[in-house]
Design brief:
This is ABC transporter substrate-binding protein. One of its GO terms (cellular component) is periplasmic space. Belongs to the bacterial solute-binding protein 5 family. Helix 15 packs antiparallel against helix 16. The protein is an alpha+beta fold. A 7-stranded mixed beta sheet has the order 8-9-10-1-11-19-12, sandwiched between helices. Strands 14-18-13-17-15-16 form a 6-stranded mixed beta sheet. The N terminus is likely disordered. The chain starts with 9 loop residues before the first helix and ends with a strand. Helices cover 29% and strands 21% of the residues. A hairpin with a 6-residue loop joins strand 2 and strand 3. The radius of gyration is 23 Å and the shape is globular.
């Protein structure tokens, strides 16, 4: 979505006070005039590094979008706040037997426009996302469509208004968890069929409703959904505010202009710890930060010896300990330690320029070569200092004769550019969507198309290619293991398969594995009932202000 001034939701136009009142309210929230009230109401102001480029959960891969849409929409299943366990949401009960899935649905849920939620809403949502023969299929559907729902669902049928029967294309172990992913939230059928603008407006069954989208100022104002079926919200307003610089966001927290900030940078943690009325909260993350090699674009990257050489030449231990100030741990494989698919026997690549130079010479690139490194300007949890990270990589690779040009972009532009495969290499990262190893191995490193004979990479323009695989890597042995793990019910057997896949991914080095980051937040001490969620959420409808 382009940022051409303020775009106000339909509810704002319908309010008798007019849209100017909403804008004024948002502005006063920034100045601190609507801080927490003694009765637990007030305005909760959430500071983040990037604005949402859209409000359509089916048109994005961005976690910045999901932070907002998760407040407005519900999935059939949800994650427990602060936990990886799934819990009921729009579905109250479910069963999965092989390829057959049955879900019993909630009968007391309504969208914020007062329309009752039924099974038909999920069916329309599913078809909009993945069914190109559907009249209302979204041409803007993101890469999430296939790996969330489309690749696994053979058919969906409603059994009355409040029961769903889903037949899968194959046994697929993570399926119920996929239903809790942000991209699987339920949209209203009437909006889908009537041309509702999900990009710039919203209508969900969740705890909040959209009041104002102010893209020119990086603000999104939400208010309670009076039709919400669950507990909360406990605040009168929820305001998401973009403050791109870590220092600016931190200062706003310390000065009482924000209640919660995320992506707290390592250089700013001390400022929060030393200030009165605020604290640093942290928890184990389920994420990874990495550098991808676009083998579709750069011929040198197609040789695993080159990828290994670069992995040895970049001092990721220094990045984690010095650039990130120890708020992360060094990575060495795709799956983070919090998940059972992590292979504990693997170690990160050591910093070894002699080994790097030897591998380059063996591959025929002893004199080096050059490439562009695309990165983002805005801090992310898995990379709280992208500029410094890129500079470290540029310097380190210069030591072995590889010339790196840094191409830094605003986050929304970066996402579009890299999703189109225009990057040579890119700094990237991933937060888990479903707390299952499949969400890393399959989503990020399986091309979801056939591997060409005799090569372990695919052309970016291949029909059906999974653009979340920013490296265009297509190792058939790895792909076979991941596919087998998807269809295996026993968790120990799945773990063994993923451990084999991790060994291949480590040795073949389609990425430079950089870090697994902690989840770090800055929180004012008038905030209670806030749980850091490494998956789903943030569950801001439960937050209270004192």
């Amino acid at each position: 979505m382009s940022g051409n001034g303020s775009q106000v939701s339909r509810r704002s136009f319908l309010k008798s006070a007019g849209s100017a009142t909403v804008v004024a309210t948002a502005a006063s929230s920034i100045s601190g005039c609507l801080g927490g009230s003694g009765d637990g109401g007030g305005a909760l102001r959430y500071g983040r590094s990037s604005h949402s480029g859209t409000l359509d959960p089916q048109a994005t891969t961005s976690g910045e979008v999901s932070k907002v849409t998760n407040q407005i929409y519900d999935g059939l299943i949800n994650f427990e706040p602060g936990e990886a366990a799934i819990t009921e949401s729009l579905a109250t009960d479910w069963s999965m037997d092989g390829e057959e899935v049955t879900l019993e649905l909630r009968e007391d849920a309504q969208f914020d426009d007062g329309t009752d939620f039924t099974a038909d809403d999920f069916i329309a949502t599913y078809r909009r996302f993945v069914d190109e023969d559907y009249e209302h299929y979204s041409d803007d559907a993101s890469a999430y469509g296939p790996f969330t729902l489309g690749s696994w669902i053979d058919s969906v049928e409603a059994d009355g208004d409040y029961s769903l029967n889903i037949t899968l294309t194959q046994p697929y172990a993570p399926f119920l968890r996929n239903l809790a992913m942000f991209a699987a939230v339920v949209l209203p059928k009437n909006g889908i069929e009537d041309g509702f603008s999900f990009n710039s407006d919203a209508n969900g069954t969740g705890p909040f409703q959209l009041e104002e989208l102010d893209s020119s100022n990086g603000r999104i104002l939400l208010t309670p959904n009076d039709n919400y079926w669950g507990d909360g919200p406990n605040v009168e307003e929820l305001l998401f505010i973009e403050k791109g610089q870590n220092s600016t966001r931190t200062q706003a927290l310390v000065e009482g202009e924000l209640e919660i900030i995320d992506n707290l940078g390592p250089d700013n943690i001390g400022s929060v710890e030393d200030a009165d009325g605020v604290e640093v909260q942290s928890g184990q993350g389920i994420n990874i930060g990495y550098m991808s090699f676009n083998q579709s674009r750069v011929e040198e990257f197609r040789d695993p010896r080159v990828r290994q050489a670069i992995s040895y030449a970049i001092d990721t231990e220094s990045i984690v300990n010095e650039v990130y100030s120890g708020i992360a741990e060094q990575a060495g494989q795709p799956c983070p330690p919090a998940l059972f698919g992590h292979n504990d026997d693997l170690s990160p690549y050591a910093y070894d320029t002699d080994e790097a130079q030897s591998l380059l010479e063996e591959a025929g690139y002893g004199d080096g070569f050059s490439f562009d490194l695309t990165t983002f300007q805005n801090a992310r949890g898995y990379n709280p200092a992208p500029g410094s990270t890129a500079e470290t990589i540029r310097t380190d690779l210069g030591e072995i004769g590889i010339d790196v040009t840094i191409d830094d972009r605003q986050f929304s532009d970066y996402l579009t550019y890299t999703s189109e495969g225009k990057h040579d290499a890119s700094l990237a990262g991933w937060y888990t969507d479903n707390a299952d190893p499949d969400n890393f191995y399959y989503v990020l490193l399986h091309p979801q198309v056939d591997s060409p004979d005799g090569q372990d990479w695919v052309d970016w323009g291949t029909e059906g290619y999974n653009t979340s695989n920013r490296s265009a890597w297509a190792n058939q042995e790895f792909m076979d293991l991941v596919e087998e793990a998807q269809q295996t019910e026993d968790q120990e057997e799945r773990a063994d398969l993923y451990h084999e896949a991790a060994q291949i991914a480590h040795d073949e080095a389609p990425w430079v594995y950089i870090d697994y980051a902690d989840e770090i937040r800055g929180v004012r001490d008038n905030v209670s009932n806030y749980d850091i969620s490494a998956i789903g959420g943030p569950h801001l409808h439960l937050v209270e202000l004192e």
